Fold these 2 entries.
Entry 1:
Amino acid sequence: MPHRDVVSATAAIGALTRRGRHRDALAMFSRVLADGVAPNEFTFGTVLRSATVLRAPRVGAQLHACAAKLGLCSNVFVGSALLDHYAKMGAMREAQGALEDTREPNVVSNTALIAGLLKNGMFDEADRLFRRMPERNLISWNAMIGGCSQAGLSEDAVNLFLEMCREGVTPNESTFPCVLTSVANAGALGVGRSVHASAIKFLGKLDVYVGNSLVSFYARCGSLEESVLAFKRMKQKNVVSWNALICGYAQNGKGEEALNAYKTMRATGLKPNNVTLLGLLFGCNHAGLVDEGYALFKAAEREQPGILKPEHYACVVDLLSRAKRFDDAKKFLEDLPFEPGIGFWKALIGGCQIHWNRELAESVAERIHALDPKDTSSYILLSNVYSAAGSWQSVSRIRREIKEKGLKRITGCSWIEVQDKVHVFFNGDCRHPQSEEICAMLGACLYTREDDQHEQSTE
DNA sequence: TTAGGGTTAG
């Protein structure tokens, strides 16, 4: 039945958008136009959302042109929706243009722009706008915190959260997942525990998003007990909750536990997704469960080929080469349904390093150099293979090559939190005030461990 | 009828 008036047409389109039927919403919009009904600012607000979710920039541009023809672009609803659409498509210039066309921009327009700026890596601009905008609400704070958290600006995200609380703005269920992801990234267990406590204080009941972030946060900070406890306390669990648990086990080297959790998850009737499989493969990898991992991959290939991504294939290469199954790994690489990127060869050379496979390491390093002559990691790995095999001449040749080609290695770092302070250490870093004591203690630990291993092997 | 903010893997 055709819609005669714009109000009922907009309501119908809005209902489709809310139900996630975005294609149908766009189709209905076209029909409404064909019926000769002129859309209003609310109609554009709704359909633009559908175009954004579908990531359809061409549809967005058509809608923009249509709104312009009707003289609606100065309206703040249309302006904000256009702004949000362009920002999410990564077209920041068009987003700014939409804001300039808006006659009276409000807190929504500014928040949409902030979110877009952060998504496109423009932190300083976003922060400047946030500081000077005339009105800020909870959603603006969440946009800043969430944007920083997703951009990896963990410290900024946590500081913003603290600032927000100081200003008396009450965080909601959207605030906490972002903050918890950030404290997890920073490895700040103590800070995260306080955030957990404040979530209980402000929210009372924790929803599935907050619960999932807690499970992941505790596991990523190495506290598996608290992670499992947070998981058990969740009233409602979805596939993301199970993924958080499985990945937590995997990251902490508990491959068997990850597999058991997966079995329980299947028993509840939930289907795994790509993240579940990745977590499982990762867990098997680190626990040396080669056959189990390979079997899971094969099962996914048969039952859910749609979830397989290059990362999963790379994990299998890693799994096989770590287990010294180089022939299987090479065969697997040859049979890949796509052209392997540099990461695949790095996974293979990693195994060569563990098992001192000098010949294969050399040929793989050649391949990596062909793909990316500036890549340092393969040089380092190759030189490690040589030094493990005792060919010091080759080691010094590689080191010379690295120097001559002006390649720089990116220094890895680790960190630990002690009494709410995070201490960061780089490779060979002696700048910590207690550096000497730390090294002495590490030495003592390593010595004891080697002793243990020696005792075990002579038993 | 209406525009802006959330979780898991790498």
Entry 2:
Amino acid sequence: MTSDGDFSDNTTRALNQIRRMIEKGNLPSDGRLPTERELSEKLGCGRRQVRRALEVLEAEGLLWRRQGKGTFAGQPRRPATEMAATIADKVDTLAIMEARMGVEPQLAALCARRATAEDVDRLRLLAERAHGASDSDYWELWDGALHRLIARIPDNPILSAAFDLLDTVRMDENWQHDRHLARTLKTKVVYHEQHQRIIDAIDARDADAARAAMTDHLQTLTDDLRRSMRETGEVHSFATEARITDKTSKRRLKK
Amino acid sequence: MTSDGDFSDNTTRALNQIRRMIEKGNLPSDGRLPTERELSEKLGCGRRQVRRALEVLEAEGLLWRRQGKGTFAGQPRRPATEMAATIADKVDTLAIMEARMGVEPQLAALCARRATAEDVDRLRLLAERAHGASDSDYWELWDGALHRLIARIPDNPILSAAFDLLDTVRMDENWQHDRHLARTLKTKVVYHEQHQRIIDAIDARDADAARAAMTDHLQTLTDDLRRSMRETGEVHSFATEARITDKTSKRRLKK
DNA sequence: GTGCGTACCAAATGTAAAATGGTTCGTCTC
DNA sequence: GAGACGAACCATTTTACATTTGGTACGCAC
């Protein structure tokens, strides 16, 4: 913070400072940034300059703004609260991962067909931010932003809505989801490599490779989650048992 | 309003009057009934009697109530229906198939792990009924039932909800375009073989084979659908074009 | 023209009051 | 004692209003 583009105009200086603020991660867990008026006061420049800087960062995919709400790092959620509420009491973490394994690989495959060069740039930026996250909260913020952008790029309203439902349920279930992922932060390097493989496949317009890379990524996440749950002694859901059950389970009665 | 069950008690009289009110249809467009307190005053009886009458009518499915909201004639809308309505104007047939290619193969894979012998028997029955269907509308009925059962067997609430959304959108779209696949004798045989392959894989507890078989089935449906659309001169969506677009499209400018 | 401040608009939030269905209790009448 | 009626209270939802926040336009200074 010694020299913030000394010879630049105020807009560029504000841009660099806000970008540094995002990279550093001194933000609440929801990624909220100070208001434009606060930023203009803190950075000692006018609100117009702050807004120009925010426009750039929004175009890069690093943050999103909403009138009346605020400015947030990452990518926005589109909550499907009504539908999520109807199933909230029946979901567990592994059911969420099973659903993600269906929706997200297909989204990645469609990205490979429809992503623009700018989309790929945004994806790479988000992956970099996840890689450089200082703690698990920020990693989840940027990982979530990356997956959300992948869900938006194909412009398929149904798959997008399905992802929104997933995202909402995941948010409601976050108290344990988050906790377990935090335990496996050591594998962050692995996650970054997988992110890059996904984005590379999208960039190369290889739909099958993108689908496979996303499947691989989600499988790793699932395995880590399951391992963490086992270590902490949590009860295994039916999903876990079924996977390792042989044919005899086929004779189980209906509940 | 001459004689409302002369010798009945107040509860029965209130029941008849409210039922008549609903049948007559003198209600606002949203079907809202007067509040319980208003009804008790209008009908000249106590609120308890009104509530008992409403309980009966609610059990009959003629109305539904919600605390803090009100009492409404008809049945409450399902969340999936609402969500489907919000995206109905943005969907096309190919977007539906893209979404199905994500959700249903995963559901088939999960079926391979969790289906009981009874489930497999039901699946085979539905496949046979589809195969024996005399016309295409009838075939769609049984085919839909087969896919719905596959969606319900894994007992994954999120994927099930996603399929529910999909199915609702699909029915709306089919109804709007009055679309039915031109089904030759050959295609019907092909579909039946694919159904059997899916069910055989589920029966053999081979998740990967079930996923692949479902993907193959949906791909065939998509191809037939696209061919049918081409013959009837429907415009191709962006999805169609993108699939055959080479890398140069990647450089297209932002709008 | 750039920078800066002010004012205002539109959208979202937070809060409090009112409305509404859900529930319990007491009293009356037959 | 059973049924009817009223009153009171609770939980949920809606409504209205003030506040916050991003979005936009205008005026002034250098």
